[in-house]
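In response to reviewer comment 3 from the previous cycle, which asked for concrete evidence that the modeling workflow produces usable outputs, we include below a single protein chain processed end to end. The sequence was submitted unchanged, and the resulting structure tokens are shown without manual editing.
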Amino acid sequence: MHAYRTHTCGALRASDAGQTARLSGWVHRKRDHGGLLFIDLRDHYGITQCVFPAGSEVFAQADAIRPESVITVTGEVVAREGATVNDKLPTGAIELRVKALEVQSHADVLPIQVAGEQEFPEDLRLRYRFLDLRREKQHRNIMLRAGVIASIRRRMIEQGFTEFQTPILTASSPEGARDFLVPSRNHPGTFYALPQAPQQFKQLAMVAGFDRYFQIAPCFRDEASRADRSPGEFYQLDFEMSFVTQEDVFAAIEPVMEGVFNEFGNGRKVTPAPFPRIAYDTAMLEYGSDKPDLRNPLKITDVTEAFRDSGFGLFSKVVASGGIVRAIPAPGAAGNPRGFFDKLNEWARAEGAGGLGYIQFAAEGPKGPIAKNLEAERVEAIRSACNLQPGDAVFFAAGKKDETPKFAGKVRTKLGEELGLIEQGEFRFCWIVDFPMYELNEETKQVDFSHNPFSMPQGGLEALNSMDPLEIKAFQYDIVCNGIELSSGAIRNHRPDIMIRAFEIAGYTAQDVEERFGGMLNAFRYGAPPHGGSAPGIDRMVMLLADEPNIREVILFPLNQQGQDLMMGAPAAVEPARLKELSIRLDLPPAKGAAAPKSS
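The workflow returned the following structure tokens.
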């Protein structure tokens, strides 16, 4: 017989009754029923109930064991009968009558409980993450992640992609976040950077002629934590393709995304390919976001003209000063009590807005402060534009052109939640396309890149030379699911002349481009194919599939919100001798609370 187990703790069934079996695992729960002691023994595969009769030689030893101790038990598999059968467990038709027990390791008193559904502070869970991962939900999330990655690999290979590994130690590159820097011992005063993404390397792989690349790529960014973004590091399905249009990229990745979400979605409805394409301008108008949650059926309407030179002075002044007014419908909300509207007004003020105007289209006619002051024909124009029926209401967001669409989007989301309109049990995908190539920096009033500077402008060099930069669109796209951006991507700018001109419009000289991106630019001078790709985030995909609100719940050993590994004690100070070896001298900021130096 094997030293530790003949079966796993999830393997035994009624057909095994009468056999002698040996199991090893963790003591999950203990229950003393007078003459019988029950231990639920747990391993990676499941749980088996083990029974220790009061008169057995190992009863006292079993009784003294703490939860989460690791033991090996040997005994007879016995079929359970009648009400003792546990239909909730795959092994619930049997139990193991233990004859021999060996303790492999004793557990101390636990800082967090593994059995049960008790909640614990996140920092405590992260400090004892190895215990937290023994809990059923956390264990299930990590196994889901492993299954998703395995499925992605299989599906990408079936689509003709080849997996490559790109460097982890590389050069610093402006990707929009801070790099993590690694000092070079052999080249004092110089630093490697951990890649924010394999962007340049995957493009160079296309220049090298590999045609279809992918990897489950680790990415490193020194940025703040969010619920859907892990500080420090994350993983993405990074892929790139040669000789493709934007639609070719979509056609390659949509079956992968649809297939993975159908495979692991537990029966939830998934948008079938091809996914809807929504232009950026349309998304900002109708949804107030470039990450629209399509489970919410509400659409925003521009009603600026209905308030121009109108009797409602507040909005009339907004429009006269160059602002806009957006209307957000609220189906069936007209009959709600005054408190419903007051509550939304308070919420709007908490969001930094002056308030939230509204009109109620009651059976007896339009009601509310705006309806009283706005001309009847203008009220009717709003009702018609928003396709409102008796019993509906409409809310308004008014203000500056660059701020109001986003606030309208927040109102849309809030109304969807308050009115119970957001469809549950669905994964609604879409592509956001036709992003603007440039935007106006409000502080400097200079033209700047609005998104990815390496995207191919629609219209190529001719568009750069002849169009207003703020009117130029890029072959750039995001894939969005349930209001969460899974990735950005683009058809790349593979022409040195177009790249230099694109950066020139944003205020960079040809020399600037050569100095900052010389490696890739030089490669393009030796023949580069048209190419494009994207990089859906693995962590965000698993977070959606696991129905978790926080990305740390689907990462094996995550950092906390402050970017610390509480379990391993990182980041940590380094001994002076090691710093000297790396030619590094520290210049630390004053400790918090320390007195400022006196001036002389």
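The chain has a mean pLDDT of 94. We consider this sufficient to address the reviewer's concern, and the full set will be provided in the supplementary archive.
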